[in-house]
Every structure is written in structure tokens, then in C-alpha cells.
Amino acid sequence: MKHSKKILALAMSIAVVASIAAAGTLAYLTGNGSVTNTFNVGTKGQVSITLDEAKVDENGKAIANADRVTENDYENMLPGQVLDKDPTVHVQANSAASYVFVEILNSMADASTLDINTDAWKAVDGRDGVYQYVGIKAENGVVPATDEIVSLEAVFNTVTIDKNLDAEGLRDLDGAGIIVIGYAIQAENLATETQTAVDVATSEAIAFFAQYDIAA
Q1: H/E/C letters for each residue in the chain?
Q2: Which domain holds residue 161?
Q3: What is the mean predicted confidence (pLDDT) over 133-161?
Q4: What is the pLDDT of residue 12?
Q5: Residue 14: pLDDT above 50?
Q6: Buried b (16+ CB within 10 A) or exposed e, 12-28
Q7: Is the pLDDT at 112 greater than 80, yes or no?
Q8: Torsions phi, psi of 26, nearest 5?
Q9: How many domains does the chain have?
């Protein structure tokens, strides 16, 4: 819990800075058992993203036709239980062509499995838990400029609790969370004499996510 408080304070601080720089909307979103961060970052131009997920019931199952939400609470978890959770990035209307990344910080990693959508999200070298969007709505890894909202494929869809957990193991998960942080950067004019545009974008994303290092 001490680390969670540090993350909250850091995230709130960075959220304010990002809001001023991007002149857009963003929020820090948190809940017991599930933590979701939403950021928009216009590092090299106007780029805006949001992040949400399906609302779940008391059994951790998505509620059909319910409005999507920015946080969920998961209670009374059981060994082997499969929980619905589908963090989804939305590139907002009038955003520039951009590279989109997410980082997943999972304090339940030793006791849970995420079904990462590897067709749409490619693991990035250099930092564990960071993924770049490479799905069908991107062209060579770049989400094109758009005058409409573009909803990308979910980063993952379920969280499966380890079926071998005992009562003590379950108690250890009390207050644990999954943090999903989104980051986008304009794709144009990034390349240098020594680095491609995607290399620069990846480096910038990793530097941004490093601010959330829970090991500190």
C-alpha cells in the first residue's frame, strides 16, 4: 500500500504537467483491486488519448450494454476465477498521426495471468510490461490522423487468478492492483540521423513510463 500511495502522488503530479502541455483532457483513475490510468500526451504535436474498460458486476463479469467506466472494483476473488477487464485506448478526434504505447504494472503478476492481445499490442524491448499498438487500425505501427475517435483493440480482455492459490495467497492480494498507463506521441518529424521515428517514439515512451517505477 505504501508503494500505491507513492504512485498516486507521482501520477497526479505528472497528470497536471501533461494537461498543461497537451491542452487536453486527462484523468488519473484508481480503484481497489483495479487501477487504470488515462493520459493524453502531445509531445511533438496535438495528440489526445483516453482509456476505459467495461463495467463489471460483483462476480467480475462485464455487464452487457452498460456504459464503459474508468475503474472497477473486484471483490471476493477465488482461485482460478476469470475476471473480465478490457482496457481500451481511444485516440481522440483531430489527433495527429501517432505511435501509441501502454505500460501494464501488475502487482498481482505472481498470482494472475493477463491474456495480452499480441496481435494488436507488441512487447517493447527495454522495459518489461510496455507494449506498442500495431493492430489493424495502424499503418506500419502508426495510427493515422483522424477527425473521428479511433478505438483500438483492447490491450487484454481477462485476468485469470492462479488456481493454486491458498487462503493466505488470496489474502496477500488484498489491495493489489493493475495499473495501465497510456502514452501517445506524434509520428511525424521524429527520426534523427541515427534513429528511426519508431525508435525515438519507443525511447520517449520508456522514459515517460519510467516515472512510474514502483520499485523506487
Answers
A1: CHHHHHHHHHHHHHHHHHHHHHCCCCEEEEECCEEEEECCCCCCCCCCEEEEECCECCCCCECCCCCCECCCCCCCCCCCCEEECCCEEEECCCCCCEEEEEEEEECCHHHEEEEECCCCEEECCCCCCEEEECCCCCECCEECCCCCCEECCCCEEEEEECCCCCHHHHHHCCCCCEEEEEEEEECCCCCCCCCCHHHHHHHHHHHHHHHHCCCC
A2: 2-212
A3: 94
A4: 36
A5: no
A6: eebbeebbeebebebeb
A7: yes
A8: -160, 165
A9: 1
pLDDT band at 214 (very low <50, low <70, confident <90, very high): low
Partners of 159 in beta bridges: 83, 114
Q: Do residues 169 and 81 touch, judged by C-beta distance below 8 A?
A: no
Residue 129 pLDDT = 94
Across the chain, mean pLDDT equals 78
The answer to whether 52 touches 70, Cβ cutoff 8 Å, is yes
All three cell numbers of 58: 460483483
**Residue 196 pLDDT greater than 60, yes or no:** yes
Phi, psi of 186 (to 5 degrees): -55, 140
